[in-house]
């Protein structure tokens, strides 16, 4: 990467937020992006072919793994168009819903929520282990970054392909990484596993919960990781916004619903912060805050040197009701989220207003579809330049 970067190539980054069932929204957007890449470079083109780093938290970590884990013939296990099919098939079993008319089951479920996680996570663990088996981080088709949080050490853990290639103890199974980054507090149980270096006999333990508590929007982590890699090389160029192409995908927020208020929350106790009206306020707050502060920072980074064209953030801040949840996995709600994703493609490009926290339409940049088509061309051009450089050095 260092040699080609010195020839003015760009580091390409894809980042996908956490958000439970709302992963259907970035799934829809990625399917569109991959179709545009295939129009340019043929039907075998896959997203993993174009990004140096793919970062994802929680449900974003699952999507990241789906599009980068090796499958047949050296291609990713999932084409982007198949992400939502996976979600539609498995989410209702990961987050089973119980009818209010099934009184006994509803009461049993509610009591369970008070004494343990809302869902037991067994189906999630089963399906992830079935799909990924013993594949490890170092085997992904491009460099991935998946944040989690170690509750024993009280610090974030960022799993990455590059680190896994350098250290056996960091080369965790992809299944364990996915389960760990998805273990949202109150919703799913924490995940424990170990890695072992059979040569030295050393082991490392992990006690993980959802990466969203540290970095629900992992864009900044991805940029920092790219910078760290560049610093390894002598005569390194300066990595700034001019030398990056960054696509950051949100999973939707409910800012316009204005569900919470100071007047209302000032009367809440500990349990209400955890459960109020079918939602979990404390989790909604820290995940949205984490996502937005990263977007503020990255937007400023690119605006400061007039390179906003190199950073595209696609986010919907108008979710409401069940669509804003992370776990209401009814077929009706999942279909609604897919429709939200399709509608988001048709909406104008927007950027976050640091004063209001809401996304404002950007005049003259067209729709998100237009922006993604343009981004696909930039990615295709970048890949062609790299191919030419490799061929010329042979």
Q: What would you say this structure looks like, in words?
A:
By secondary structure, the chain is α/β, with parallel strands linked by helices. The protein contains 15 helices and 10 strands. The chain has helices at residues 2-6, 24-41, 59-68, 83-94, 103-115, 122-132, 161-166, 174-181, 212-215, 219-230, 262-265, 270-274, 281-303, 331-346, 368-393; strands at residues 11-16, 53-56, 143-150, 155-160, 191-196, 203-209, 244-249, 311-314, 350-352, 359-361. Strands 1, 2, 3, 4, 5, 6, 7 and 8 form an 8-stranded mixed β-sheet that branches. Strands 9-10 form a two-stranded antiparallel ribbon. Helix 2 (24-41) links the parallel strand 1 (11-16) and strand 2.
Features:
394 residues, 8-stranded mixed beta sheet, two-stranded antiparallel sheet, 44% helix, globular
How many strand elements? 10
Mean pLDDT: 89
Q: How much strand?
A: 5-15%
Distance between the termini: 16 Å
The rough form would be described as: globular
Briefly note the structural class of the backbone.
alpha/beta
Order of helices and strands: HEHEHHHHEEHHEEHHEHHHEHEEH
Q: Number of helix segments?
A: 15
Oligomer: single chain
Low-confidence regions: 1-8
Major beta sheet summary: 8 strands, mixed
Function: Lipolytic acyl hydrolase (LAH).
Domain PNPLA: 14-223
Enzyme class: hydrolase
Active site: 58, 210
